[in-house]
Amino acid sequence: MIFLYSILTAFIFNFTSVNEIPYSALETAFTANNATEIVTLGKDKILLNILGNEGAYSHSQATLVLKDFFNKKAGTSFKFIFKGKETADGSFAIGTYASKTEVFRITIQFKKILSDFKIESLTIEKS
After folding, report:
1. Which entry of 23, 31, 66, 112 is 20 to 30 Å from 43 by CA?
2. How many Å apart are CA 66 and CA 104, to the nearest integer?
3. Could you report the per-residue pLDDT of 46-55, keeping only the tens digit for each?
């Protein structure tokens, strides 16, 4: 009986997915100027603050706002410079986004919803 319990426990722990913050997906999406991919990693409503223009947006609206930013400031690189500690509530991260002529600071606040980390807010400001 103990053997069966041990096997069952090991099976559950090996196949239980632990969802982490999607840092690599975000780095790829920002580098590729892929607004759609970034927004799909967010909550139903995302708070965006882009160069001082702030608002709460649905996925379709947030995609349009980010696409507009990427069209005006097409990026050449993105990297995270700080990743906050994951807590039961969420986390945050800070990155650097470089366009051809400017560098921007990206701050992302994550909210833990069930077992997933979703973007709650995203701020883009000049460095």
Report:
1. 31
2. 14
3. 999 999 999 9
